[in-house]
Amino acid sequence: MGQTTWKLTTAEKLVHLLARLGIRRNDWRVRPGLYRLGNPAPDSPVFVSANYILSFDALREALDGIDGYILVLDTKGINVWCAAGKGSFGTDELVERIEKTSLADEVETRRVMVPQLGATGVCARDVRKRSGFKVDFGPVRAEDIPEFIRNGKATEAMRTVRYDIRDRAVLIPVEGKQGIPLAGGLMLAAYLGDGSIAALGIGSAAAAGLVAFPLLMPWVPGKDFSTKGFVLGGAVAAATAAATVLADDGTSLGWRLGKAASYLLAFPALTSFIALNWTGASTFTSPTGVRKEINRYVPVMAVMGASGIITNVAQRLLRSRKG
Amino acid sequence: MADSKLNTLEYDASLCNRCGLCAAVCPHRVFQNGDSAARLVNPDSCMECGACALNCETGAIKVDSSVGCAQAMMLAALLRKKEPTCC
């Protein structure tokens, strides 16, 4: 049995920062198994966690001063909720881990506390039938466990998953990472083709989806991710188009209008597509809703994006023919 | 018939044995404990995570649960896979 602590070391905090930035994210795994936390007695509580470092450490830290056991499941380095969605944080793994660690011999209690979000993969009655351990579904967030234990029950707030600005902000680096090469490529292409205003514009359109959208999500007009993305991308496109038309760069007004039109078509589609991809990192979208959103808006995005590129290339061809 | 136009959640209160697990596990407070049966109070907020149905002993709750991630779903469609898988 491993031993762990309530306090995190500086090195562990550094690992958290790296994990949050998406750096070597899959390397930060906890070895599955049973851990002693503090100095537990045989009847101390058993808490179940995932072998994703941020899940395990959030639990350790939240249990400050509480002696107990942590049973770490092998979720392939994935957090509790995502792993529960795929079943790796699930009934089978929990039952097998209870057997592999000889939990029934190590502890006297016959209860285990599973995070509420683990219920997507864990069927409490099957676990009891197969292992003899009763599952108590704890609160959504580990930080509420001490109060949950003190009061013997959960408040509505403890049972509700949230998605406030801090929850969204911490996801920006790891979600945005895959968008950075895309944004960089588009900016380079825009700079070589249309100059610095276009490059700044397309970079801002990408940033609107990668950064502004998650931060401002509840306040942006629109009923779903895609429409909110169209609104934000539309604002960037309008500003870029205005700057392009007003810029006295020696080209004719017709050409500048052509460029502006291409931005008005393509930028909102880009921002909207990035915004749509935030559904995977949100806490409330249903597959049914996301499927509808994809079917309704992805064709619109494709048509707008393609028209924007065609408009841009067309005005360039006309220009070179005249020039 | 689903109880909301926004998702696939179906609840048959006549089958409920009041174990209370649906109200405990739902992260969006779709169910509440009631006197004779669990009450479906917030059907539109269901995100189809499936926790309630998995833990419902009597089969009173049904929902098509899957991954609500656009990237995973579009990838699955492109690769012609049946089930989207995330991360």
Question: What is the fold-level CATH name, i.e. the topology of chain B?
Answer: Alpha-Beta Plaits
Give Rg of chain A in angstroms: 26 Å
Strand proportion of chain B, as a percent range, falls in 5-15%
Indicate the percent of residues in helices of chain A.
55-70%
Q: Round the mean pLDDT of chain B to the nearest integer and report it.
A: 92
Provide the succession of SSEs of chain B: EHEEHEH
CATH class of the largest domain in chain A: Alpha Beta
Q: How many domains is the backbone of chain A divided into?
A: 2
Chain pair with largest interface: A-B, 40 and 35 residues
Q: Number of domains in the coordinates of chain B?
A: 1
| Unreliable residue stretches of chain A | none
CATH hierarchy, class of chain B: Alpha Beta
Q: How many strands, what sense, and barrel or not for the largest sheet of chain A?
A: 4 strands, mixed
CA distance, first residue to last residue of chain B: 32 Å
Strand segment tally of chain A: 6
Q: What can be said about the biggest beta sheet of chain B?
A: 2 strands, antiparallel
Note the main attributes of this structure.
heterodimer; A: 323 residues; alpha/beta; Rossmann fold; 2 domains; 4-stranded mixed sheet; two-stranded parallel sheet; 14 helices; 8% strand; elongated; B: 87 residues; alpha+beta; Alpha-Beta Plaits; two-stranded antiparallel ribbon; 3 helices; 9% strand
Describe the structure concisely for a colleague:
Helices cover 58% and strands 8% of the residues of chain A. With 323 residues, chain A is α/β, with parallel strands linked by helices.
Describe this structure in words.
The complex is a heterodimer of chains A (323) and B (87). By secondary structure, chain A is an alpha/beta fold. Chain A has two domains: 160 residues, 3-Layer(aba) Sandwich (Rossmann fold), CATH 3.40.50.11600; 155 residues, no CATH class. Chain A is 58% helix and 8% strand. In chain A, the strands form two sheets. Chain A has a four-stranded mixed beta sheet with strand order 1-2-4-3. In chain A, strands 5-6 form a two-stranded parallel ribbon. Chain A is elongated. The relative contact order of chain A is 0.08. The model of chain A has no long low-confidence stretch (mean pLDDT 95). Chain B is α+β, with helices and mostly antiparallel strands. The longest helix of chain B is centred in the C-terminal third of the chain and has 9 residues. Chain B is elongated, with a radius of gyration of 14 Å. Chains A and B meet through helix 3 and helix 14 of A and helix 1, helix 2 and helix 3 of B.
